[in-house]
Structures are given as structure tokens and as C-alpha cells.
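Hi F.,

I've been meaning to write this up properly since the lab meeting, where we talked about keeping a consistent format for the predictions we share between groups. The idea is simple: the sequence comes first, exactly as it goes in, then the C-alpha cells exactly as they come out, then a line or two of notes. No screenshots and no reformatting. I'm using this chain as the first example so we have something concrete to point to.
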Amino acid sequence: MLHRELFRYIVNASQPITSKETAMHEHMKRRHGVGRGPEVRERRGDPFGPWGPGGPGFGPGPGHRGRGGRGRRTRRGNVRAALLALLAERPMHGYEMIQELDGRTGGVWRPSPGSVYPTLQMLEDEGRVGSEEQGGKRLFSLTDTGREEAAAQTVAPWDEVTEAAGENVLRGREAIGQLMGALQQVMAVGSEAQKARALDVVNDARRRLYGILADDPEAE
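Output, unedited:
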């Protein structure tokens, strides 16, 4: 939430984005397929998310491209397997499971409520998960059948997601967090001149990042 607020601040307070940068941004979105595919279907309200209540497997999937393609997108995890693995540790609320997966993948994978809760309901219908009301929330836990299925998993689903994402994706998220922390500090205690210089740095970094994509022949 902090990062989102800081990004909103940057957009409102920083220098206007030039028309050239806007055109480059739109070009990169089209070239890399941003805004298309399963993610769009999920935003449009499919209660089971883009791949159904169990989520996708870990094969190459629709985001994978061979040589000369658009590059590999971060693969999403198997929601069913992840929920079973989490509940094998302890009973949890639905939102707690979402937070756990977000944290364990370094923010790479945060399944939506529209995929988590229908999957929990399906597991409950299958007799693998039970639930009880606790403090106005449903607390989920595994049945014996659910524990058997969870025990059959040899690799934690969140580890598969982070491995598929690659080291640079995880390092990038860490770098963004550190940048936002530094910017927050300047905006909190810096003078107006220091704040202006900080925003100049952010704007320059943004332009240079777009330049990397524009100049890199392997970005296609």
C-alpha cells in the first residue's frame, strides 16, 4: 500500500511526461502484450480467475515464447496446490493465505480473491478442507484427505513461482522497495529544493528505463 501511495505521489508531483515518452510507453505496452490475455479476463470479473478455480499448472503456458517471441512472462502459481500447502502448516483465513503467497514470492504472485475463494469452496466440497466461523471470518483447515494430497507435493508451489520468475525479477522488486523508501525519506524531511532534485532523479530514471527497452535488440 505504501508503494502505491508513493507512486501516486510521483505521478502527481513530478514533471509532466512528454508526448515522446507517452508514445514510447504505449509502444512498449503493445509490443510486450501488456493489457491482453488472461489478466484482462480476470479483471472483467471471471470469479474463477483466468485459468479456472484450480489455477494453471507450471508448464510453459500461454505467456511462454520461444526464440524470436515476445519473451517469457512470470508464470502464475497453482492456486489449489498453494492453498493446500499453506493449510498444511496451520489453519488460515482466506485473506491471510493471499498475503502469505504475496510475501513468500516477494510480491511476484498475489492471487486474487476471485481465484482463492472459489478454490477453497471447491476443496471444501471435495472434503479436503473444512471451515468454521471465527471472529466474523471463515477459518479454513485441512481434513485428513486434504493432508494426504498436500503431503504428496514435493516442491512448495511458491518456490516454483519464484524460480520461474528469475533472479532479476526478484532483485527488481527489492530495488523498487529501496527506491521508494529513499524517496519517502526525502519527501518527509527534505527541503523543497531537495524534493525537487529527488523528483528529477526519478524522472531521469524513468526516461533511461524506457531507453533500455528502445535500444535493446533482444527486447523484442
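Notes:
The chain has ten helices and three strands.
The radius of gyration is 21 Å.

If this format works for you, I'll send the rest the same way.

G.
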